[in-house]
Design brief:
This protein is an alpha+beta fold. Helices cover 54% and strands 19% of the residues.
Length: 171
């Protein structure tokens, strides 16, 4: 068998000694940077989690505080004729049954004496509408918003929170 020749040791000032030290220093820097990035990422994630958790707790507390019993007031069923479309000979009607949502029973008692004014407001507004106003996209939504605005003007300083349709038929 043949013997393998041994390599001669390199002098200290040359070759591997210096080259081996440079990559080791670079790898330490990379390792430190990666570690620092991981720590920052973990700290940021933990901080974000705590902020979200505190917001959720605050939202739950606010929702619990805001759970005030609401009151609903029924308005008598109204049947009203609509404005005729151009060229229309047969009259068209709308039948509405509406409920008003108010903050509490105290507000409902303030509004109760004003119900004739509220019904008049509904009648005057709806009689000026055409069937096409309801058929357009969002027509019913716009009707609800306009009725809410008009009711709040009629019952001021009391406030109605929502107008709810219980029955809505166009004939």
């Amino acid at each position: 068998m043949a013997k393998k020749p041994k390599k001669a040791p390199a002098p200290e000032g040359e070759g591997e000694g210096e080259e081996g030290a440079v990559p080791a220093a670079k790898s330490r820097k990379k390792l430190i940077l990666i570690g620092a990035a991981a720590v920052l990422l973990a700290a940021g994630g933990g901080g974000g989690f705590m902020v979200m958790r505190s917001r959720a707790a605050h939202a739950e507390k606010s929702a619990a505080e805001q759970k005030v019993p609401v009151a609903f007031m029924d308005i008598r069923e109204m049947t009203m004729n609509l404005m005729p479309e151009p060229g229309q000979t047969q009259p068209r009607f709308v039948r509405l049954k509406v409920a008003l949502e108010v903050r509490d029973a105290r507000v409902a008692s303030e509004i109760q004496p004003l119900m004739p004014r509220v019904e008049d407001t509904f009648q005057v507004f709806v009689r000026d509408l055409r069937v096409g106003d309801f058929e357009a996209a969002g027509g019913t939504y716009r009707l609800r918003e306009e009725l809410l605005r008009r009711v709040n003007v009629a019952v001021y300083p009391a406030k109605v929170d929502a107008v709810l349709f219980k029955d809505f038929i166009i004939q």
